[in-house]
Amino acid sequence: MKSKEPQTDKSLNAEDSPDVESGIPPIDEEGDTHGQVEIPSTLTVKQLADTLNVSAVDVIKQLMRDGVMATVNQVLDYETAAIIASDFGYEAMKEAKAAEETSSKDTLSVEEEEEKEDPSALKARPPVVTILGHVDHGKTTLLDRIRQSNILATEKGGITQHIGAYQAEVDGQKITFLDTPGHEAFTAMRARGAKVTDIAVIVVAADDGVMPQTVEAIDHVRAAGVPMIVAINKIDKADANVEKVKQQLANQSVLIEEWGGDVISAPISALTDEGIPGLLESILLVAEVADLKANPHRTAIGVVIEAKLDTNKGSLATILLQTGTLKIGDSFVVGDTWGKVKAIYTDKGERVKQAGPSMPVEVMGSNSVPQAGDILKVVSDERTARRLAEELQRKREMEAQQPARPWSIEQVMAEIRTGEVKELNIILKTDVQGSIEPLKGSMELLNTEEAKVNVIHAGSGSVTESDVLLAMASRGIIIGFNTRTEPGALRFAESEGVEIHTYDVIYGLVEDVKKALKGILEPTYADVIEGRAQVRAIFSVRKSGKVAGVYVTEGKITRNSLVRILRNGESIHQSKVSSLRHLKDDVRELAAGFEGGIGIEGYSDFQEEDIIEAYRRETSNE
Ligand code: GDP
Questions:
Q1: pTM of the predicted protein model
Q2: Is the C-beta atom of 144 inside 6 A of ligand 1?
Q3: Residues 372-419: pLDDT tens digits?
Q4: What φ, ψ does residue 330 adopt, rounded to 5°?
Q5: Ligand 1 site, residue 145, Cβ cutoff 6 A
Q6: Whole-angstrom Cα distance, residue 292 to residue 439?
Q7: In 3D, which of 308, 311, 413, 312 has the Cα closest to residue 368?
Q8: Which of 136, 145, 237, 242 has most ligand 1 atoms within 8 Å of its beta carbon, as the pocket-test mutant?
Q9: Are strands 423-430 and 360-366 parallel, antiparallel or unpaired?
């Protein structure tokens, strides 16, 4: 329900309103004013009622008259609240200008704040590093190894705390490592608007080589525009093949230095420590080139890496400080909560009085637990902190009611139309690896002077949550070709307003991308998997050719299902269910754990072990 744009048509006047009989008090028709009231940019029905000195029920009834159905905790925008206020005989005024100004100032991003900074106040700060790569390639082992062997000299012997990030010291220089490896965490932060990582280390196991998640990690890092270093791990293993990894990287257009590119690669063994000092040197080198700076003498801004409730200490949030120095006693707003710094702990569990740029610290003192990705800002006093937090709280409630997104595809399309944006970011998922290049090729042929296709990630397999995150963070759309969307990813895409377009013919895809480049693409549909069944036997049926005897392994297959036949993981046929039987009976659906017979329209070449995947097609984003 929208609380915006209420009907202001006063033809529905109190006298002839049937509501009068039901006890709604008549409103002030004479236009007597009780004076002026200050109303903030958003507030709840309850807060408005308090401001107007009437009951919340009266406000709700008045909103109903104006065509807005509301509840006590519903958040109203200023315009709506002002109309209601005038209905009750008040003249609304937007809450004091000063308040609005601080609030807009306090929502400045760290980058914007930095821009305003006097360059002479900026000092070099340690790089913040995230480790990414395919599962089991050694990310965690590497993080642990660096933590153990490079804790700050002064803190040797200290007990390391897992607070989500830690600092290592190399040649007297510090490096901050984020402790949650992987591109999901990396991109999730970015999608929330927090730019945390300065350098990404992609770990590739030398015995396994570049794998799908390696490619994903590389694409996520590239989309973020963060410099990368490749750590070729497990060189201690007999079947390690470093040269092959380099070749595979080149195939992904990651050109390492020896191959004439600019990406540093470091052969390492996270197990034996070999090469790790070299890797750390490389990180410092890349950091030097990136010229990372912050002003340690200003009020602090940081990002929440993780947060928890401790039974003794209350809310504890790991904050990665981005700029400024955080001190005990500072008042701060963090996300939609606030507080006063009561204690600061380092990653070694030591209590400190203050913490500067790039330092990860655990902060005690926020009134409730903030969310990862929330920004912490130090403000002048507790009152301001509280007001800003409450403002954000109202904003978030409002967004929950009518999802206001950080971006929308309509916005991108409009920007393409007006020429503000020249690239359409696409995440391409296909059934088989072999379709990627031809599809990319077909799409790139559509590039025009005005706008071009930018495939930021392409891979085979279904559309996952990580694809949705990447689309969010990069303002892109997802295109699936002969592939499906994981149910969780679809829900996520819907809630975040990310578009997933799926196709089974190239023509449709090409036509739509052409439209998208002109900024006129309509949302289409996404495939949602309903169930999977394994073919265990094949029967001949006189009437309809062949029927597959199946065992439903997950979800369900229904009579209306669209189906895809997968052989060795690849889709070999798409059609729909023509008959569905359990024992001798025709049934409407077959659920997981049941055996039955499935006939597929226009198909009879079943083989044992084939997977029949049932799906339905849903319109996305509507
Ligand atoms: P992650 O999933 O990328 O975090 O991988 P892990 O750090 O959990 O490592 C997966 C497995 O590889 C573990 O059994 C590690 O002991 C092993 N491993 C990690 N690094 C090395 C290495 O350099 N050499 C060898 N031989 N094994 C390693």
A1: 0.64
A2: no
A3: 888 999 998 888 888 888 888 877 776 655 444 555 666 777 777 777
A4: -65, 140
A5: no
A6: 39
A7: 308
A8: 136
A9: unpaired
